[in-house]
Amino acid sequence: MDCCDNTALHYAIYNGDIGTAARLLEFKANIEAMNKNKITPLLLALKQNKEKMAEFLISRGANAETCDFLGRNSLMYAVRCGSEHIIKLLLQGDIDTFKKDAFGWTAKRYAIESKSKV
Q1: What is the CATH number of the domain that holds 72?
Q2: What is the CB neighbour count within 10 angstroms for residue 69?
């Protein structure tokens, strides 16, 4: 880990390198590793608007219910980045749509406030 607790998997996600991410997971990299802001690789992929990477991590069993330091889960991140495909994927997985973050906002509120088309 670096000084911010980012792992090699975080860096592979940030760089959009699915091949390296897959290889790291083969060697038992922690798919749920959190950095100092409690950002997991899945949340980082969504934060960086890397839809294919997020889909890859979900298919590998990443926990969609994990929250960052403000209580935002992957559905909230997917709404914020406008990823209709990932939103559908998360909803098919029975994610909690009523989850509230530290501000009391749900994913629906993020969608309304961002004037998102999704």
Answers
A1: 1.25.40.20
A2: 12
Number of domains within the chain: 1
Residue 35 located in a structural domain: yes
Beta-carbon contacts of 104 under 8 Å, excluding residues fewer than 6 positions away, are: none
Q: Residue 81: pLDDT band by 50, 70, 90 thresholds?
A: confident
- 8, two tokens: 């090699």
3-state secondary structure 5-50: CCCHHHHHHHCCCHHHHHHHHHCCCCCCCCCCCCCCHHHHHHHCCC
Would you state the pLDDT for residue 38? 96
pLDDT, mean over the chain: 94
**Crossing angle of the two packed helices 84-92 and 51-59, in degrees rounded to 10:** 20
Q: What is the C-alpha separation between 13 and 115, in angstroms, rounded? A: 27
Mean per-residue pLDDT, 81-91: 90
